[in-house]
Amino acid sequence: MKKILQGNIALCEGAIEGGLDAYYAYPITPQNEISAYFAEVLPKLDKIFLQVESEVAAINMVFGSALTGKRAMTTSSSPGISLMQEGISYLCACELPCVIVNVMRGGPGLGNISGSQQDYFQSTRGGGHGDYYTIVLAPFSVKEIYEFAKKSFLLAEKYRNPVLIIYDGYLGQMMEVFDTETQEGKLEIKLEKDIDKSWILDGAKNRPPRKIRSLLMAEGELEKFNLKLKEKYDIIKENEVRVEFYYVDDAEVCLVGYGMSARVCLEVVNNLREKAIKIGLIRPITLFPFPYKEIFEISKKVKKFLVVEMNLGQMLEDVRIATNGNAEIFFYGRAGGSLVSADEIINKIKEIIN
Amino acid sequence: MKATKFIKPKAIKELYHNYCPGCGHGIVHRLVAEVVDELNIRDKTIGIAPVGCAVFAYDYWNFDVSEAPHGRPPAVATGVKRVLPDRIVFTYQGDGDLAAIGTAEIIHAANRSENITVIFVNNTVYGMTSGQMAPTTILGQKTLTTPYGREIYKDGYPLKVCELLSVIEGTKYLARGAVTNPKNVALTKSYIKKAFVNQIENKGFSLVEILSMCPSGLHKSPVESIEWIENELVKYFPLGVIKDV
Amino acid sequence: MYEEIFIAGSGGQGILSLGKILVYTSLQEDKYATYYPSYGAEVRGGTASCMVKISDRFIYSPIVENPTIMIIMNLPSYLKFVRKFLPQKFLFLNSSLIEEKEDIKDLIKNYPKNLKIIKVSATEIANKIGSTVVSNIVMLSAVLKETKIFKIDSIKITLEKIFSKNKKVLQTNLKALNALE
């Protein structure tokens, strides 16, 4: 079926399809369409919608609903996500599955309300205190927003870990025609075994009581838990990397971009390929786990990489780690809510080639 | 005279707790457990423990318990209760957790009249972090961070949580008890019971504040701590039912 | 087919609606389309603009950098955006609200030679139909006539869907759509 939706609304429809039980949030631009949509639709479906007093409360209500094994979600934009970091650290520590969406805007501070990708570090490095990661999905189309939202709960439950969906305000605001039937943009989650719900708190009826906590004071207990988490993250790194390649094999310069900047890059690639200029694109779809191995393989053949972001160089560091000195790395980025343009990228490529 | 056998409630585990000698937490834990037993709700109760000395409450109670980030139990409880409205959900919070870092969460949970029960233990001092000023530390009271006594112009006034919440229409039951003597303990238990029954009857937000002893934090002996609460603290925090609608 | 359309005017002139109508219509004609609104802190009265791309293939960036078609509904937008973009094929101007002043003449010198400028007194025509708010649809009828991006019947289907609950508003819109026939 063909649909036409705004990015933020596609997120809502996807989340509902994916079995959303409860949504808690505090208003912030540029993602207010999400709350408005859920406020109208969720009560009719007998699901929970609450506009709450702060992002701090929102993430902790997500924590509460996640405790019971229900599918809970919150959405916000950059400053609000900063406020949630404490809660996200606890969610990871208590291994509670949930979905958090960041419709990124310009920063730091109040910044502006335009789209940006300035929260890459915050998203991919845990974001709060302690040694942990969230799974980070970076859709680049309205269809991917819809599909990722649909499957993100399952992914979170598979690993008992929060999933973060991040996209910039531009993608959130844009409308796009897409086909729900086609395979592209779908997020397949492989399950080796049934989802484990033997940990949830729903009242100790006919079973021993359970506790959920992250305070581990006995000697060596916390380190043991940290190692257990690491083991989980290693499995995630092994199983869940998603990345797309476009014309990479014979590329003279390989662009690397995600989300909205990948779209602009793709415009550039198609444009230049028509002129027989050999440009390729690597598009990481998961930012954690990051496609280090895949990019490393490409760096054996392609010797020039141009990282394109709507920030001043964050994923750039991961591409440097991935290529491990094999290739020359260049960067083009726009910050403060500005969008990279195809013309700007083409000029940068000309600089690199000549 | 017939001897009464001292039996542990089913809702409390067979464990020694880690509280200091003379601490009131053990009594309050037990009162909650007795009420849970009496109302026969142990298999549908979910408790939310705070950050503070009572953080280990999940080790003592014999029903489902989760931790919560500091000050956030009312938000976590909201998240549980909204998706499982037929379970009994309560938070157990200290004065720092509820009346300092968690003021936004408690006020808004109260204002939404979340159908939850809040057990608020007020011992006027931060026990776990070694005895700093709490929002409920009374004027002139010496703590680690008010070595010259709490002063109005520097530290402001002690926060009266029940009185503050009483003007919020969403609060349905507010009471302040103490666990300093058998009579007060019995009264406090009746408050706690009422706060749970309210939830069972879907009446909305209920909170019981409990004046409790922290001999280590107050730098007093257990007996002195009790005397201080009964002689000094109750002057500022009067006991009794503050609101019942 | 590949068109980059930029639409601007003042808040209340149906700028964003016009963009959405184009995108919805792309569904009828089995085209890919993207729509991107510009949004500011202000809600009403300021400049409103949106970007629409329509194509036979997947559209990469939704951001219009080189518009083929530009639709300008009032003078402030004209002064602002003709400095930013030079449309490649068509420039539609709402002549009811845009008067050509001296400083604009300099700009016009820079226009591409084969650019077609179409002036439509959209607001006046809309007023005659009985509703200022349909000036966007009057303009749309001119756009369809000149550019042939969509069949007029496809637009009719979109309008019927959008205004299915309000027959009177639908009639006014359909009248506006046929205003230049």
Provide an overview of this structure:
- The complex is a heterotrimer of chains A (354), B (245) and C (181).
- By secondary structure, chain A is α/β, with parallel strands linked by helices.
- Chain A has helices at residues 7-17, 32-41, 55-67, 78-83, 85-93, 120-124, 142-159, 169-173, 221-239, 259-274, 292-299, 315-323, 342-353, and strands at 2-6, 22-25, 48-51, 72-76, 99-104, 135-137, 163-168, 175-179, 211-212, 243-246, 253-256, 279-284, 286-288, 304-309, 328-333.
- Helix content of chain A is 40%, strand content 19%.
- Chain B is α/β, with parallel strands linked by helices and 245 residues long.
- Chain B has ten helices and nine strands.
- Chain B has a seven-stranded mixed beta sheet, sandwiched between helices.
- Chain C is α/β, with parallel strands linked by helices.
- Chain C has seven helices and six strands, in the order βαβββαβαβαααα.
- A six-stranded mixed beta sheet of chain C has the order 2-3-1-4-5-6, sandwiched between helices.
- In chain C, helix 4 packs across helix 5 and helix 6 runs antiparallel to helix 7.
- Chain C is globular.
- Chains A and B meet through helix 3, helix 5 and strand 9 of A and strand 1, strand 2, helix 3 and helix 5 of B.
Helix/strand layout:
The complex is a heterotrimer of chains A (354), B (245) and C (181).
Chain A: E1 2-6, H1 7-17, E2 22-25, H2 32-41, E3 48-51, H3 55-67, E4 72-76, H4 78-83, H5 85-93, E5 99-104, H6 120-124, E6 135-137, H7 142-159, E7 163-168, H8 169-173, E8 175-179, E9 211-212, H9 221-239, E10 243-246, E11 253-256, H10 259-274, E12 279-284, E13 286-288, H11 292-299, E14 304-309, H12 315-323, E15 328-333, H13 342-353
Parallel strand pairs in A: 2-3, 2-4, 4-5, 5-7, 6-7, 11-12, 11-14, 14-15
Antiparallel strand pairs in A: 1-8, 6-13, 10-12
Helix pairs in contact in A: 1-2, 1-7, 3-5, 10-13, 11-12
Chain B: H1 25-38, E1 45-48, H2 57-60, E2 64-66, H3 73-83, E3 88-94, H4 95-101, H5 103-111, E4 117-122, E5 125-126, E6 132-133, H6 152-155, H7 161-166, E7 171-178, H8 182-200, E8 205-211, H9 215-218, H10 222-236, E9 240-244
Parallel strand pairs in B: 1-2, 1-3, 3-4, 4-8, 7-8
Antiparallel strand pairs in B: 5-6, 7-9
Helix pairs in contact in B: 1-8, 4-5
Chain C: E1 2-10, H1 15-28, E2 32-38, E3 47-55, E4 69-72, H2 75-81, E5 90-94, H3 102-109, E6 116-120, H4 122-129, H5 135-147, H6 152-162, H7 167-177
Parallel strand pairs in C: 1-4, 4-5, 5-6
Antiparallel strand pairs in C: 1-3, 2-3
